[in-house]
Design a protein that fits this description.
Pfam families: SKN1_KRE6_Sbg1 (PF03935). Its main location: membrane. This is GH16 domain-containing protein. It comes from Phellinidium pouzarii. GO terms for molecular function: glucosidase activity. With 219 residues, this protein is mainly β. It has two domains: 118 residues, no CATH class; 85 residues, no CATH class. It is built from three helices and nine strands. The strands form three sheets. It has a four-stranded antiparallel sheet, with no helix packed on it. A three-stranded antiparallel sheet has the order 1-4-3, with no helix packed on it. A two-stranded antiparallel ribbon has the order 8-9. Strand 8 and strand 9 form a beta hairpin.
């Protein structure tokens, strides 16, 4: 039989839990249909921790024969960080949810609470006016999943019918990479050499002092 396609739904965090194992118990973490969704066997490396689950994809959703809705609901509140959560949707249904409690303190690795990020949009253009991006691509890598080259046909296409982005009516600056409470542009422009010259590979070569850490440096 043909391999069954899966959609990976992940959140990267740091610092890491001991053995890169987050709290996947219920209620901190919820899988809504365990017959099609399971926790990802990949949990991280020495360079990243992956909070991830995979959901089976219907065979019909290939070759431009059918479309499925995928989505993500993302909530963080600086005034009440315990309320933070991320819910992924697959084929129009809730797949799984991770909350702030899923990435709580870990006494073994001696780390404190990680956050559901309060600045979710990515900044891909380090300029005076940063731009936020949502990247949709057809990518393959053996680091994520083995490719079934015996059945793949090239050139291949990924069909996208539409993309919609919503913001809660009472939220301001929710779809920007440069909100006033996290002024990314100010920091980038204050260190513009480091962000625009790929030949400068250390802070000192870019003309800046190394960023200090209140826990390590006592600043």
């Amino acid at each position: 039989s043909l391999p069954h396609g899966e959609v990976s739904q992940s959140y990267q965090v740091a610092p890491f839990n001991a053995f890169v194992k987050f709290d996947n118990s219920t209620p901190p973490t919820t899988i809504y249909n365990s017959t099609i969704t399971k926790f990802n066997s990949f949990t991280g490396t020495a360079l990243q921790q992956g909070i991830s689950a995979v959901t089976l994809v219907d065979f019909d959703n290939y070759n431009n024969s059918n479309y499925a809705m995928y989505g993500i609901e993302y909530w963080s509140d600086m005034a009440n960080r315990d309320d933070g959560y991320i819910t992924w949707y697959s084929q129009g249904e809730k797949a799984w949810t991770v909350t702030s409690a899923s990435i709580g303190p870990d006494s073994v690795s001696q780390i404190s609470q990680r956050l559901i990020t309060e600045e979710p949009m990515a900044n891909m253009a380090p300029t005076i006016q940063p731009k936020q991006y949502m990247i949709l691509n057809l990518g393959m890598s053996p680091s994520f999943e083995a490719q079934d080259f015996a059945h793949l046909v090239f050139p291949s296409k990924m069909y996208i019918d539409y993309v919609r982005v919503y913001q809660r009516s009472d939220v301001k600056e929710g779809v920007t990479c440069n909100p006033s409470h996290h002024p990314t542009a100010d920091y980038i422009n204050a260190h513009i050499n480091a962000y625009t010259n790929p030949n400068l590979t250390t802070w000192s070569s870019a003309g800046y002092s190394y960023p200090r850490n209140s826990q390590y440096d006592g600043c």
